[in-house]
Design a protein that fits this description.
Layout: E1 24-28, E2 40-44, H1 47-55, H2 57-71, E3 76-79, H3 81-87, E4 96-99, H4 103-109, E5 112-114, E6 122-127, E7 130-136
Parallel strand pairs: 4-7
Antiparallel strand pairs: 1-2, 3-4, 5-6, 6-7
Length: about 150
């Protein structure tokens, strides 16, 4: 029986991508989605969409990237539109990953990277024919329009 733990917390390398785990999402609502600006809600993705996504080629490789980062001692999270797609019951075509690993550490962990935007903390990681944007956690300054920051730290 597959592990119930996410990668890096007990799932062995080579474990099938359908290894079961719950994906919890802290969703920070924006003004256009929630009347309470800044309201944070804990949501759980349905296991069925997690399983279907992890069985897809894109999901399997996204899982491997997160697993590699966690095994190296870093945090890593799927973020953005892929989470929205999964809540809509769709397998995401594009998976973005956020991590506390600095760009130079991400480059050292993966053979194929594009560091064109490394100064902004973003890299493209290629794995098995799929490309993922891996971005280092950052702190945004105030946003004049409520969504796009004036600058990034």
């Amino acid at each position: 029986m597959p592990s119930m733990e996410p990668p890096g917390l007990g799932v062995e390398r080579g474990e099938p991508a359908e290894a079961k785990f719950n994906m919890f999402v802290l969703y920070h609502a924006h003004h256009d989605m929630c009347p309470r600006i800044g309201h944070t809600v804990l949501m759980i993705l349905p296991q069925e969409i997690i399983d279907r996504t992890l069985r897809s080629p894109q999901g399997e490789q996204g899982y491997r990237i997160v697993e590699t980062l966690i095994d190296a001692g870093f945090e890593a999270w799927w973020v953005g539109g892929c989470i929205r797609d999964m809540f809509l019951g769709e397998i995401p075509e594009d998976i973005d990953i956020a991590t506390n690993a600095p760009p130079e550490k991400v480059i050292a962990l993966f053979k194929k990277t594009d560091d064109t935007s490394a100064a902004l903390g973003a890299l493209l990681v290629s794995l098995e024919g799929h490309v993922f944007e891996v971005t280092t956690f950052r702190e945004d300054d105030s946003a004049s329009d409520g969504r796009h920051p004036e600058s990034v730290k």
